[in-house]
Write a structure and sequence with these properties.
With 91 residues, the chain is mainly alpha-helical. The chain is built from three helices and two strands, in the order H-H-H-E-E.
Length: 91
C-alpha cells in the first residue's frame, strides 16, 4: 500500500482518512498496472512515431516560378528601387 501522507504534504493537501485510503487504493492499482507493463519485452520494438500506416500523404513539393518581380511591381500604385512603396506608418 502506498503511503499517501508524503504526497499529501508535498502537494499541501488536507485529506481525511477516508480520502487517503481511497487515493491509496487507486494508487496501488496504478502501480500494479505499471508493474505489468514493465514485464513486457520491448528490446526489439522500434519507437512509434505515428499510429497511422501513412508515410507521406502530402503532395510532392515541386518548386515552380509563378511571376517575375517586374510583373508583380507593375500592379503596385507606387514603387521604389524594385520594392513596393507604401505610406510611412511610424514616425
Amino acid at each position: 500500500m502506498i503511503d499517501i501522507n508524503r504526497y499529501q504534504s508535498m502537494a499541501k493537501l488536507s485529506l481525511s482518512e477516508s480520502e487517503r485510503a481511497r487515493i491509496s487504493d487507486h494508487a496501488d492499482i496504478l502501480v500494479k498496472s505499471f508493474d505489468e507493463l514493465e514485464k513486457i519485452n520491448v528490446d526489439n520494438a522500434s519507437p512509434l512515431i505515428s499510429v497511422l500506416n501513412e508515410s507521406n500523404i502530402l503532395r510532392e513539393d515541386i518548386p515552380r516560378k509563378f511571376t517575375t518581380r517586374e510583373e508583380l511591381l507593375s500592379y503596385a500604385p507606387e514603387q521604389s528601387d524594385g520594392y513596393f512603396q507604401v505610406p510611412k506608418t511610424i514616425d
